[in-house]
What we know:
By secondary structure, the chain is an alpha+beta fold.
Amino acid sequence: xxxxxxxxxxxxxxxxxxxxxxxxxxxxxxxxxxxxxxxxxxxxxxxxxxxxxxxxxxxxxxxxxxxxxxxxxxxxxxxxxxxxxxxxxxxxxxxxxxxxxxxxxxxxxxxxxxxxxxxxxxxxxxxxxxxxxxxxxxxxxxxxxxxxxxxxxxxxxxxxxxxxxxxxxxxxxxxxxx
Length: 178
C-alpha cells in the first residue's frame, strides 16, 4: 500500500490530523517488506529493522547489536547487492509478463499504414464517438527507431508527423488504389 493510501485509510474523515499521523505512517511504511526487494526500506538503507514501540521485550542475546565499522559497511553493501538482485529479478518477471502475447511490428520507409486518431492528440477530428478512429493510409517517410515513425502527413493536419508504433496499423489494401 502506498503512503498516501495508507494515510487516507488511517485518517478517514479526520483529515485535519494528517500532520500528527504522518510520522507514524512513514515509520510503518518504511518497516513494511516490499514485494520487489523482499526487504523493508529500513533494511535497505540502514541494514537492520528498527524496533517498533510495540516491542517491549528486550533483544535476544544471540543477536549481535554492535558492529565495528567495516562489518557494518560490508553488511550494508551485501544488503544493497541482494536488493539490486531482487529488483532485477522482478523487472525480468514484469518484462516477461508484459510482453506475453505482444508481437513486434516493424515498418520500413515507403510502407503504408493507418493512423489511429487519439482524442487527446486530435481533439478537432475526434469530437464524438461516431467520428472515424483511423485516417487515410499514410506513407512512412522515416523509421526513427522500432517504436517511432515519421509519416507523410498533409501540412494542414495540425500535428507532429512522428508517431508511436501503437498508433499505426498496417494498410492491407492495394497501393494502386491510392
